[in-house]
Specification:
By secondary structure, the chain is an alpha/beta fold. The chain has 16 helices and 20 strands. The strands form 4 sheets. The chain has a 5-stranded mixed beta sheet with strand order 1-3-2-4-5, sandwiched between helices. The protein starts with a strand and ends with a helix.
C-alpha cells in the first residue's frame, strides 16, 4: 500500500478501520515536508514487504484546515500516530530507517520474555523498558498491560509468566511491574492495581528521565510529549554543576507535570540560536518555562523554593508570557501596513477591519511582489487592511505556531475566533478571490480574474525545495518553539 491520501471525506474511516495509522499533516510550501515526502514514500513501500498492520497516510493541512484545527496542528510537518482511532504524537525521526524502526515497534509493542537469555537481551535495550510479571499471559492483568503498551511509543514493553525470568528484574509476585532506564533514576516500581489507565499514567510519568539533556534526538520526546509544559535551562557544564541538585529536586516535585530539560552550551549553535531567536540574550544560567509555545523567562535566583514557586505558577497559568517585538514604526502609510508585536492588537485585532496578515520569515521565499500588488489594488477599500509581520523579530499570542511564510485572515467582528488560513495561495488574483469570499464587510474593487488550476488539488505555483544548511536544520529541530 502506498501513502494513503486523507481528507475530510475519508479521514475518520481510515483511522478507525485500521489498528495502526501514521498520519503526516503537511503544507505544499513547506520545504521540510518536501524533504520528508521521499523518505515517507519509501517507508510505505518497505511496509508493503512486511506483515505489519501499519498504514502510512498524509493530509494536506492547508486544504483540510478543519482537520488541522481539530488535531491542533501548529507546524509542518506534524505527525500523529493513531492506535484504534486514538492519536498520540509521533516521536521518531524523519528518515526512512527511523520511520520503519518506529512503526515496527508500534506494530508489535509487547514482547514476551520466555527465558533468562531473553531477559539478558532486554536489559541491553537503550530505550526505557517496562517489564510486567503476570500469573498468565491470558489473564486480565496481562490484557491491561497489553492495552497500555499500545498507547505508549517511547518505551519497549516486555511481559513474562516465568518466575526465573521475573527474578532477573527483581519481580517476585504477580502481578508486578517495573520500568527501567539508563539514567540516574534507574528503576520505578508500579504499586497500584493493574488497570489500563493507571498503568498508562505510571509509564507516561516515569519513562522520561527527571532531567532530559536536549539534543536533536531528544527534541521529539520533549516537545511532542503529552506533557505540554517544559522547563528549559540554558547553562554551560560548569554552570549546571552548581545548580544541578536543586534542579533535580524541583523535577522530582513536578514529575509528570513539567518536563525539565538542560541545554548544554558545549554545543553553542543550538542554544545561542534559540536565545537570539527569541530575543532572550541575558546572563546565564537562564531558565525559561514553556507552555504550548508560550515563553515565560525566569528572573529569580536558583534556590529550590524559588524554582518550585515558578513551576507552581506555570502549572496554575499565573505567569505572563513573553513576546518579542520591534519598535512601532514612526511611519506606516504604505499600502502594506507593517505590524509588530506591540501594534498587533491595534491593527490586526481592530474589530472594524477585515485584516489579511502575511507572517513571513526573511530567510524563506518571499510573497512580497504579489502581496504588494494586492495591497495596491485594495488601498482605497477602507474596511480592509493588508498587513505583514516579520516572524523573526515579532510574536503575538494570536499567531499560531507554524512554519513561515503563511497568510492569516482576521475577519471584522470575529477577532476572538481562530484566524482563517489563506491556504497555499500565492498570487494577487487568488488572494483577492479569497478575500471576496471571506470578508465580513462586503467590498468592491477591480481585482484580476483568478483561473482555477487545471488539475484538482494542484498548487498555484510550484514551490522550490531549498537545501537545508546546518543552521536550517537547527531551526527545524526547534520549530516547536
Amino acid at each position: 500500500m502506498d501513502v494513503v491520501v486523507l481528507g475530510a471525506s475519508n479521514f475518520t474511516e481510515v483511522v478507525n478501520s485500521h489498528e495502526f495509522v501514521l498520519v503526516e499533516f503537511y503544507a505544499l510550501w513547506c520545504g521540510y515536508c518536501q524533504t520528508l515526502a521521499f523518505e515517507y514514500a519509501q517507508a510505505a513501500s518497505y511496509l508493503n514487504m512486511t506483515r505489519l498492520n501499519v498504514v502510512l497516510a498524509k493530509v494536506d493541512a492547508i486544504e483540510n484546515s478543519d482537520l488541522s484545527q481539530q488535531f491542533q496542528v501548529r507546524g509542518f510537518p506534524t505527525m500523529l500516530f493513531f492506535v484504534n482511532g486514538v492519536h498520540e504524537p509521533y516521536t521518531g525521526g524523519r528518515n526512512v530507517h527511523d520511520i520503519m524502526a518506529w512503526v515496527k515497534k508500534c506494530g508489535s509493542p509487547l514482547q514476551t520474555l520466555k527465558s533468562t537469555a531473553d531477559a539478558e537481551k532486554a536489559l541491553e535495550v537503550e530505550t526505557p523498558i517496562a517489564v510486567a510479571y503476570v500469573k498468565s499471559l491470558e489473564d486480565k492483568n496481562a490484557k491491561a498491560f497489553a492495552a497500555a503498551a499500545n498507547m505508549d511509543t517511547g518505551v519497549t514493553f516486555y511481559i513474562t509468566e516465568d518466575k526465573e525470568v521475573a527474578a532477573k528484574f527483581s519481580l517476585g509476585k504477580t502481578p508486578s511491574l517495573e520500568l527501567l532506564k539508563k539514567q540516574a533514576e534507574k528503576v520505578a516500581l508500579f504499586k497500584d492495581d493493574f488497570e489500563e489507565m493507571a498503568l498508562t499514567s505510571f509509564i507516561a510519568k516515569n519513562r522520561l528521565p527527571l532531567v532530559i539533556t536536549y539534543s536533536p534526538e531528544t527534541a521529539a520526546s520533549i516537545f511532542a510529549s503529552d506533557i505540554s509544559k517544559q522547563f528549559l535551562l540554558f547553562a554551560s557544564t560548569e554552570e549546571y554543576a552548581k545548580i544541578r541538585v536543586i534542579y533535580y529536586e524541583a523535577a522530582k516535585t513536578f514529575k509528570g507535570q513539567i518536563i525539565f530539560c538542560h541545554l548544554d552550551f558545549v554545543d553553542l549553535e543550538v542554544p545561542e540560536f534559540f536565545l537570539s531567536w527569541n530575543d532572550l540574550i541575558v546572563e546565564r544560567p537562564k531558565l525559561i518555562g514553556f507552555d504550548g509555545g508560550l515563553k515565560f523567562p525566569y528572573d529569580g535566583d536558583f534556590s529550590l523554593a524559588s524554582v518550585k514557586e515558578f513551576a507552581g505558577k506555570l502549572l496554575e497559568n499565573k505567569l505572563d508570557p513573553y513576546f518579542k517585538s520591534e519598535d512601532i514604526p514612526e511611519k506606516n502609510d504604505e499600502p502594506v501596513k507593517v505590524v509588530v508585536g506591540k501594534s498587533f492588537d491595534n491593527i490586526v485585532l481592530d474589530e472594524s477591519k477585515d485584516v489579511l496578515l502575511h507572517v513571513y520569515d526573511p530567510y524563506s521565499e518571499s510573497l512580497e511582489p504579489e502581496y504588494n500588488k494586492l495591497a495596491e489594488l485594495l488601498k482605497d477599500v477602507k474596511s480592509i487592511v493588508i498587513a505583514k509581520m516579520d516572524s523573526i523579530k515579532n510574536e503575538h499570542g494570536r499567531v499560531p505556531m507554524t512554519d513561515y511564510p503563511i497568510v492569516f485572515f482576521f475577519p471584522a467582528g470575529k477577532k476572538t475566533e481562530v484566524p482563517i488560513w489563506a491556504g497555499a495561495y500565492r498570487t494577487a488574483s487568488r488572494l483577492g478571490k479569497f478575500l471576496k469570499k471571506n470578508a465580513a464587510i462586503p467590498f468592491e474593487a477591480d481585482l484580476p480574474e483568478y483561473v482555477e488550476p487545471k488539475n484538482e488539488g494542484e498548487a498555484e505555483a510550484p514551490e522550490q525545495v531549498e537545501e537545508h544548511t546546518d543552521k536550517e536544520e537547527s531551526k527545524d529541530e526547534l520549530s516547536a518553539f
